[in-house]
């Protein structure tokens, strides 16, 4: 069974249809990349999967582990194991990353019928993960994302993803792209989390991220539709030729 299966998904923002019939299945253990021109609807897709407000699903369904998640809130989806990174990192004044993550982790555990993590075990998990990702200790003790630079926000998001161990990781790079430092943190973080039970949807405007995170499947997105699907070589072809072939057809 796919980890997530999206069938004929249509979604709109206000009166405007943005997603025009998306079909996509991500098997556990695979990395899917989504590429495509600005405004194609890539972020909309990740936001709709995560259940963010402001989108209306008008047709189709999203099955996560075989169950329709249409009625679940963003929180419930997160507790079920869906993690959306990067698009709009939230600032939480007064709440440290450590406090925030402990609550989020225990909410996930509770949803899975597991006991709360022991304080000592949690501290060890934070320390080990920070060391593995080369994250400075003080970042963990600061309020979530407040005053973080762009690169620090990316690091903090990868840190959260590593601690929470979601089964579906949605990474929306944002149009500004990544500097070299963030690129390294993101790709190493993702590669360390690749595992047989986990799936990734990596949205990127730039091919270079996919030199570091080699995808199993690449989709080209244009005007609210997946217009082409291929393997990693498709990303290279796009790098060489751009999206013109696909946008003209869309
Ligand atoms: P991408 O991530 O591929 O660049 P988006 O999903 O961000 O594309 O946007 C798809 C389309 O939806 C664009 O035309 C964009 O202008 C529009 N859009 C996105 N967010 C909003 C919004 N909050 N209100 C109105 N239109 C929006
Ligand atoms: Mg955009
Ligand atoms: Mg986008």
Automatic annotation (TrEMBL):
Keyword annotations: ATP-binding, Nucleotide-binding
Domain of life: Bacteria
Domain ABC transporter intervals: 4-248
InterPro entries documented for this protein: AAA+_ATPase, ABC_transporter-like_ATP-bd, FeS-cluster_ATPase_SufC, P-loop_NTPase
Cited SUPFAM superfamilies: P-loop containing nucleoside triphosphate hydrolases
Record Gene3D superfamilies: P-loop containing nucleotide triphosphate hydrolases
Xref: PROSITE patterns: ABC_TRANSPORTER_2
A GO MF label: ATP hydrolysis activity
CDD domains tied to this protein: ABC_FeS_Assembly (cd03217)
Family: Belongs to the ABC transporter superfamily. Ycf16 family.
Protein name according to UniProt: Fe-S cluster assembly ATP-binding protein
